[in-house]
Amino acid sequence: MSGAPAVELRGVDCAYGPQTVLSGVDMRVEPGQFVTVVGPNGGGKTTLFRVILGLMPPLRGVVRVLGRAPEEARARVGYVPQQFTFDPLFPVRVGDVVGMGCLGLRLPRAERRARVAAALGTVGMDGLAGRWFNALSGGQRQRVLIARGLATDPEMLLLDEPTSNVDAAAEEAILRLLDGLRGRMTLLLITHHASVASRFLDVIYCVNRTVHIHPKTESLDEDLMRHITGLGLPGTRAAAPPEGCAHA
Q: What is the arrangement of strands in the sheet containing 186-190, beginning at the earlier edge strand?
């Protein structure tokens, strides 16, 4: 789909029952961009990802992903969820977790194994397919989940707070990993941390029912991050966006 934006939303509204979550969202992500998505809890960040993945049809508006309908593009989009629920008493190996990313592709067994090995190599966990997943550290588990998202060889990868539950050393390892993916695919990252957002400042989308674009030319510090993630909190009145934080 040469020339098509990686993501394009025009006038998108979404709701859960009577509660509006996204309203009038316009968004355009170019191929190869690294986009950071920030905003308050409940502001619609994860819902935005669900719309892009084709898991939640909007009430109105247009959604195009990699030049096609989201459900048609889903096989070309990897996803790393914020949490991965598993039973620590149930034995599952690292290779099995990564291989879950290939479900639905109907790959020959040899190609599936090759994709698992390649994805683990990308995240720096070569040769660990046979390790038990529940024996890994939190940072190692998160890298395995990123490998699962990469197993389909996607054109775009969505990551929902991939550093939220890891220590500082593991966070740094994950950030170096993501920096290495820059330019190889389109990346969209949800985060609450200014340090993470600033590191990947191609474009920042501030999501709180609608979307504000935060340009690369403006530095992102903790004060601005508090403003962004505090927009629309109950009992508060949002201030005007800082200069350069334009409504999309």
A: 77-80, 156-160, 186-190, 34-38, 203-208, 210-214, 246-247
pLDDT tens for the chain, 248 residues: list them: 457 999 999 999 999 999 999 999 999 999 999 999 988 888 899 999 999 999 999 999 999 999 999 999 999 999 998 867 677 777 899 999 999 999 878 889 999 999 999 999 999 999 999 999 989 998 999 999 999 999 999 999 999 999 887 888 888 888 889 989 988 999 999 988 766 777 766 788 888 888 877 665 555 555 555 555 554 333 333 334 444 444 34
Residue 9, strand partner residues: 27, 63
Bridge partners (DSSP) listed for residue 103 = none
Residue 87's CB: how many other CB atoms inside 10 A? Answer: 8
Q: Give the bridge partners for 60, in sequence order.
A: 13
Rounded CA gap, 193 and 93, in Å? 31
CATH for 7-84+158-247 is 3.40.50.300
